[in-house]
């Protein structure tokens, strides 16, 4: 697992939500729920968060011998679903299948939130995947440096799409423009699908799209892929370079859309450890490995400390990008 390292864990643990002790839990390391489990997804059905939850739920149900249901609580950029889990009893029975939006970007993007960054306990990631820079075939650039040169020759004349203001593809585009000193017009859409339609039609010139949703357009030749946003190339597109390979200005560029399980912050550590162990076994199953390969994703399993360090690093990364952009929205 390349995303999470012990070095970042040591650097970030002081900023992580406290891993609560577990007084009054006998046989704590062998915690098992005595009631049904819920996984709250703060997004609509069908997306990667929902897919992760619906892969995980039946495994936890078998592993713990209790029903495990998935409940979608979409709205307000993930705030509604997140807030429900923050308010839940810290007994391990209510989990959040969180993601980069409400659990990292949102802490800097929104002026006020009904919870703080330490209101949740990170348990483990499920999957991560890059965004991919795709252009309409009419754009003369065949490489990322050529696109940068084209943008600089036409400042403010090209447009890039996204599934919405503050979403990962939008902020990937913002960081890309900041790092390369380029200007482009951002056009937000109501979802990645409508943005992709406009790109294929030539009404926008480029976009950073989630690889999991954009790979079919690339394979169909309807758009041209120039780079992926992750630190390394993606096995699904081995000939497409990582952005940071292509230009010195992008040496620190590393973006992944990611998903993972969180619990209310006061949850005793042995409960979190038990769920983490179950997720480790789940992540090693052939079914899950095959699903992530199909989607162009990579497992994000890590220990409690590793995942807390990863999440805190993401919060800080996006805070810097958002501050520089001067972007602020109202939650709700």
Tell me the number of strands: 10
What would you call the structural class? alpha/beta
Beta-strand portion reads: 15-25%
Q: Mind telling me which CATH architecture of the largest domain this is? A: 3-Layer(aba) Sandwich
* Average of pLDDT: 88
**Corresponding CATH superfamily of the largest domain:** Bordetella uptake gene, domain 1
Count of helical regions: 12
List keywords for this structure.
alpha/beta; 10 strands; 332 residues; 2 domains; ten-stranded mixed beta sheet; D-Maltodextrin-Binding Protein, domain 2
Overview of the structural elements:
The chain is of the alpha/beta class. Helix content is 41%, strand content 18%. The protein contains twelve helices and ten strands. Strands 1, 2, 3, 4, 5, 6, 7, 8, 9 and 10 form a ten-stranded mixed beta sheet that branches. β1, α2 (48-64) and β2 (68-72) form a beta-alpha-beta unit. α1 (6-12) packs across α12, α4 (100-109) crosses α12 and α6 crosses α12. The longest helix is centred in the C-terminal third of the chain and has 22 residues, at 304-325. The radius of gyration is 20 Å and the shape is globular. The two termini are 35 Å apart. Mean pLDDT is 88; it is low at 1-28.
Element layout with pairings:
Layout: H1 6-12, E1 37-41, H2 48-64, E2 68-72, H3 79-87, E3 94-99, H4 100-109, E4 120-135, H5 144-153, E5 159-162, H6 168-180, E6 185-188, H7 192-201, E7 206-210, H8 211-219, E8 224-228, H9 243-246, E9 256-264, H10 269-283, H11 286-295, E10 298-299, H12 304-325
Parallel strand pairs: 1-2, 1-3, 5-6, 5-7
Antiparallel strand pairs: 3-9, 4-7, 4-8, 4-9, 4-10
Helix pairs in contact: 1-12, 2-10, 4-12, 6-12
Keywords: Receptor, Signal
InterPro entries: BUG, Bug_dom1, TAT_signal
Family: Belongs to the UPF0065 (bug) family.
């Amino acid at each position: 697992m390349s995303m999470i390292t012990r070095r970042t864990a040591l650097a970030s643990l002081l900023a992580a939500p406290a891993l609560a002790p577990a007084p009054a839990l006998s046989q704590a390391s062998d915690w098992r729920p005595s009631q049904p489990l819920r996984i709250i997804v703060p997004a609509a059905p069908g997306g990667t968060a929902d897919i992760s939850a619906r892969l995980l739920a039946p495994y936890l149900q078998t592993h713990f011998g209790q029903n495990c249901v998935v409940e979608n609580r979409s709205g307000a950029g993930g705030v509604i679903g997140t807030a429900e889990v923050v308010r839940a009893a810290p007994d391990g029975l209510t989990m959040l299948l969180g993601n980069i939006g409400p659990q990292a970007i949102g802490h800097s993007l929104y002026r006020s939130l009904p919870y703080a960054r330490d209101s949740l306990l990170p348990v483990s990631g499920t999957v991560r995947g890059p965004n991919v820079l795709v252009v309409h075939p009419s754009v003369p650039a065949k490489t990322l440096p050529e696109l940068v040169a084209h943008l600089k020759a036409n400042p403010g004349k090209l447009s890039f799409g996204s599934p919405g203001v503050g979403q990962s593809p939008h902020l990937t585009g913002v960081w890309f423009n900041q790092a390369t000193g380029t200007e482009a017009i951002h056009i937000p859409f109501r979802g990645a699908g409508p943005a992709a339609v406009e790109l294929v039609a030539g009404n926008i010139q480029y976009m950073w799209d989630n690889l999991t949703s954009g790979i079919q357009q690339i394979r169909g030749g309807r758009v041209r892929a120039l780079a992926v946003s992750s630190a390394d190339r993606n096995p699904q597109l081995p000939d497409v370079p990582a952005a940071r390979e292509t230009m010195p200005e992008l040496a620190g560029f590393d973006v992944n859309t990611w998903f993972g399980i969180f619990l209310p912050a006061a949850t005793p550590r042995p409960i979190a450890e038990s769920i983490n162990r179950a997720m480790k076994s789940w992540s090693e199953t052939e079914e899950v490995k095959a699903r992530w390969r199909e989607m162009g994703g990579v497992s994000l399993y890590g220990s409690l400390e590793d995942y807390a360090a990863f999440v805190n690093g993401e919060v800080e990364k996006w805070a810097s990008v958002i501050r520089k952009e001067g972007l602020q929205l109202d939650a709700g």
